[in-house]
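[Meeting: bench + compute handoff]

Bench side (C.D.) handed over the final construct sequence. Compute side (W.E.) agreed to return the predicted structure before the next meeting so the bench team could plan truncations. Sequence as handed over:
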Amino acid sequence: MTGNRGARSGKGSLGILIPGLGAVGTTVIAGVMAIRRGLGLPIGSVTQLGRFRQDPNDEQSERIVKDALNLVPLDRLHFAGWDIFEGSCYESAVESRVLEKELLQTLHGELSAIRPMPAVFSRDHVKRLDGPNLKRGRSWFDLAEQVKSDIQQIRKEQALDRLVMVWCGSTETFITPNQQHESLAAFERAMSANDPGISPSMVYAYAALSSGVPFANGAPNLTVDIPAMVELANEYQVPVCGKDFKTGQTLMKTIIAPGLKARMIGLSGWFSTNILGNRDGAVLADPGSFKTKEISKLSVLDSILDPKRYPELYGDITHTVRINYYPPRGDNKEGWDNIDINGWLGYPMQIKVDFLCRDSILAAPLVLDLALLLDLAQRKGLRGPQDWLSFYFKSPMTAALGQPEHDLFRQQQLLHDQFRRFAS
């Protein structure tokens, strides 16, 4: 279990463990280092810049999130992680080409000191990547024990009071939930038998939860959103959340779609395509990994628009999503949306959106927020899926693994409601 020093007050040190020290992982780490030195602002981070009203109807009750919730300050954060490539965080950040070389050079010493531990990896689950920095083991269960050993070693060597884990690894091939995911006992048997229904991300999640470490899933993989993991999280009294960081195109959908519904404007089609050239883009060129991502990206509109309640407006929508690997673009993703809408008397209109975004720049503040808020949730005694963190995900988990809320503004309300409970 995690340490107890400063557990209730938020004092002490917090280790953020990151499986996948690629573009997103290194951007988070370098960003926190830069902010601590006064070299940048934590733009996009609700925990660092956000405010909420203690009384929703009283403007004078506004409070600053990080102060009201007594979150761990950035100078008490420590980082460690795993990756299939051996280079330090500095080398990985240079290779990822997200942040400017001048900034990375300023942070060279700190970033170079963080080197990835050998990773749990399988080409059966991520077909378009391979690397030399891998763990070897007889079974998934053996690999999980190795990750647990890593966790204990990190806690001891860095004298950390508490830990959280945020998955920033690649999108794995699609897995259909099956009987091996229905209970913890079945899951552990499947791990020992090297069942193909177990994936590397599940191994990390199992190791984290059974070590008392909260876990957030930043990819669309089937990972902690299965009954076995919920059972494990409840047994070890650990909060979990996921899945798939809500950053670019889907963020726009969860902003635009609620506005269309609020004005009772009809929708007949939404075509979305992306070009992306980073490691994630390469992985998603594999049909199996793309299917995992596609399901996550397609899930938002039905929940927001409620076609059963408004069949005349949203009962027959064509929703298409494409992702194209285009190496020259690197981490600077471009998302194009064509939205076919219907107005008065059914007359057609269109909305065009061209979002030129930076994938890791949008994801980095989410990783920071989730790490700090999961630590807070554990300090407050919460366990299992955290519905109130749906604000950060494309496919949010719910307590009963049921239908999630996708409307960004309702998600924000859930988030602020929980802030009020924490701060009261």
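W.E. noted at the follow-up: The chain has a mean pLDDT of 94. C.D. will use this when planning the next construct.
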